[in-house]
Design brief:
The protein is α/β, with parallel strands linked by helices. The strands form eight sheets. The protein has a seven-stranded mixed β-sheet. The longest helix has 19 residues, at about 130-145. The protein is elongated, with a radius of gyration of 33 Å. The mean pLDDT is about 90.
């Protein structure tokens, strides 16, 4: 069993598991940390960004990268179309992947790169909410990147020799050879057309070799963990899970207990921030800004935590006397996001499900839309311009502030200290996000709301699940760089976890020792068990082993030629099976002294015996032959002398007890 790591980020996982001749990809995330090295793409022309000076290594030297890099307040940014870091494609042949298992809509954004550009021809499984919401995120990504095209691509700065001369942090940019421009709408439709839907606890069969079961992870609508098992081995994959009580179905942990291997990724990115207290801080900061006549920008994804923000914020604004303040949700997929969240009732927690039978919508944002308190628009153009009024709260993308309508609001509101931008997404460092907007007058509040499991919860879960081996990203083996003395911010297990990093291949300590074999009723009736001790029976069995679709069936040998039905043609190979039926069975261990004596009786006298860690090595010096004898196996190395090999085989078998 092997595990290939194709991603560097623990919260943007992409792993490949090879097991029982099957190749399973676990998630295919898009690493967006590369965006921090690019200038924002404004929807409306930005005078400020267009006037930024080109970067030069020294005042009197010509830049080796031309106009590709711009200097903004001492930070160097790439001025071109945005590029994303895709999973590693050179570590193994991705056309050999049999199936891709998707955990949630955040971990599937690299799917078009895999399905359309690597020769992949396997199956893809995801839950229905994951598929639909993933489509929305991909469509938003495509829309945002295509509506602000850049004519000249930037490639010179990626040259290894040039990269070394660039200032930090661009000099430390990781895996730049894996950075790609965003895919197209056609790629999205082609990739998602290959996805098959799966339900919680549904048993999915892979070529008869493995069973794959999705289980609720409690993180977002339709998110799941995966249990992959054969008849005797079990691997559990936990990615992006939550034990908090929010809108999705709670996490299902029972079927994951006692696994041979437990792979954990997607843990809390801001473990020192409590989600509940951050929600309170979000509301209070927003209220202060609104009461002072300012506007609030919330860069966000169009799904997930935003539903909880709408619910909590509307109740808070009611209690604070801010009911008249409009909330705007601006996204190309705003309408479909709000609509789909209301129709996936069976994927929600019990309290949300119960509302459907009243009947009421599970989320209150439909009522907010009906009353005109929450207004949604596909972009800042068109109808939004007619209904826009301040002060207001705007929810829009992208959280990176490198593309999307959020860039326009940063340029519009950034010059006034009365306005506030509140960061709730934990995926990006807010100081890096704000770097190309400096100097910035508007206030910035960091209130990361990350519902995923923290390290304390993960360590308790590992103890409860009792896996034999735990596999984690290398980042989880030590505390975060900002908190080097916090030993509680890492994953612990007994035995110690096995870490992995990008491009690493782990050989997992799981060996296949058994295989399940079905015995046909006809063969079972011929068995004559003998009791060797109370409650234990043994019986010899001779049959033909048929292997088909990774299922093993033991059936009776064909009858001999003389007793077969006259005139009936025998199937190819049946004569061989009859000929191979053993005349007797050997058992037990070989006594090396008796073996040497029998060799001498057969004229082989120049024998030298050595002990080895697993048994014995017998040298037949005159014959230039070595016999390696270990418990459970014997190997004869005789340089292709077939007659000698058969003679030695017969001598060895004659030394074993038989019946």
């Amino acid at each position: 069993m092997k595990l290939y790591s194709l991603s560097a980020q623990p919260n943007a996982p992409c792993l490949v598991l090879t097991f029982k001749n099957c190749t399973v990809m676990l998630d295919c995330s898009l690493d967006m940390s590369s965006l921090m090295h690019y200038l924002p793409l404004p929807v409306v022309h930005s005078e400020r960004l267009s006037k930024l000076p080109m970067w030069k290594p020294q005042e009197d030297k010509e830049s080796p990268v031309g106009k590709e890099l711009k200097d903004c307040g001492g930070h160097v940014f790439v001025d071109s179309s945005l590029e994303f870091c895709i999973p590693e494609t050179g570590l193994l042949d991705l056309s050999t992947v049999d199936v891709i298992l998707i955990s949630n809509y955040h971990t599937m954004l690299a799917l078009p790169f895999i399905t359309e550009y690597t020769g992949f021809n396997g199956m893809i499984y995801a839950t229905e909410p994951t598929l639909q919401t993933g489509r929305q995120l991909m469509e938003e990504l495509v829309e945002y990147t295509e509506r602000v095209p850049k004519i000249h691509p930037a490639t010179k700065w990626k040259d290894v020799d040039v990269l070394k001369t660039l200032p930090s942090p661009l000099r430390e940019a990781m895996n730049v050879t894996s950075w790609r421009k965003c895919y197209s709408k056609h790629d999205v439709n082609a990739a998602l057309s290959k996805v098959r839907l799966a339900g919680y606890a549904e048993k999915l069969n892979l070529y008869g070799a493995l069973t794959m079961v999705p289980l609720s992870s409690g993180y977002c609508i339709g998110s799941c963990n995966w249990v992959i098992q054969s008849d005797f081995e079990k691997v559990t994959y936990i990615s992006g899970s939550s034990l908090l009580t929010t809108h999705p179905l709670p996490m299902d942990t029972t079927p994951m207990k006692n696994s041979d291997v437990l792979v954990i990724t997607g843990l809390n990115q801001t473990p020192t921030f409590n989600p509940d207290s951050m929600l309170g801080e979000f509301c209070s900061n927003l209220a202060v800004t609104i009461k002072n006549g300012g506007n609030v920008l919330v860069p966000c994804c169009p799904s997930g935590v935003i539903y909880d923000l709408f619910e909590c914020l509307s109740a808070f604004m009611d209690s604070a006397g801010l009911t008249q303040i409009p909330m705007y949700f601006v996204s190309p997929v705003a309408d479909s996001s709000l609509a789909y969240s209301q129709i996936f009732a069976e994927w929600l927690c019990v309290s949300k499900q119960s509302k459907v039978y009243l009947p009421e919508p599970p989320f209150p944002h439909s009522e907010l839309v009906k009353n005109g308190r929450l207004k949604h628009f596909p972009s800042i153009h068109g109808e939004f311009s007619n209904q826009y009024k301040t002060p207001c709260v705007v929810f829009t993308g992208h959280p990176s502030l490198r593309f999307g309508d959020a860039v326009h609001f940063m340029e519009l509101w950034g010059k006034s200290s009365a306005n506030t931008v509140i960061f709730t997404e934990p995926s990006f460092n807010y100081l890096d996000v704000l770097a190309p907007y400096q100097p910035l007058a508007m206030k910035a509040c960091y209130c990361p709301i990350d519902p995923t499991m923290n390290f304390t919860q993960a360590n308790k879960l590992i103890k409860d699940m009792k896996p034999l081996h735990v596999v984690i990203p290398e980042a989880y083996t030590s505390p975060p760089p900002l908190f080097p003395h916090r030993d509680d911010l890492l994953v612990e297990a007994d035995p110690p976890p096995t870490p992995y990093k990008r491009t690493e291949v782990l050989t997992l300590p799981v060996r296949r020792r058994y295989e399940k074999i079905e015995i046909t009723p006809e063969l079972a009736t011929t068995l004559s068990p003998t009791e060797v001790r109370p409650g234990v029976f043994i019986s010899t069995i001779t049959g033909a082993l048929i292997v088909k679709d990774n299922k093993y069936i033991l059936q009776p040998l064909p009858k001999s030629v003389s007793t077969s039905v006259p005139g009936k043609k025998r199937k190819r190979g049946e004569e061989d099976l009859v000929a191979k039926q053993p005349k007797h069975y050997v058992y037990g261990n070989l006594e090396i002294e008796e073996f040497v004596q029998n060799l001498a009786k057969n004229g082989i006298t120049d024998v030298k015996v050595e002990d080895s860690p697993g048994g014995h090595i017998v040298h037949l010096q005159a014959e230039d032959t070595i016999i390696q004898i270990e418990e459970g196996s014997t190997h004869i190395f005789c340089e292709g002398n077939e007659s000698l090999r058969k003679k030695l085989r017969d001598i060895l078998i004659s030394c074993l007890p038989k019946f």
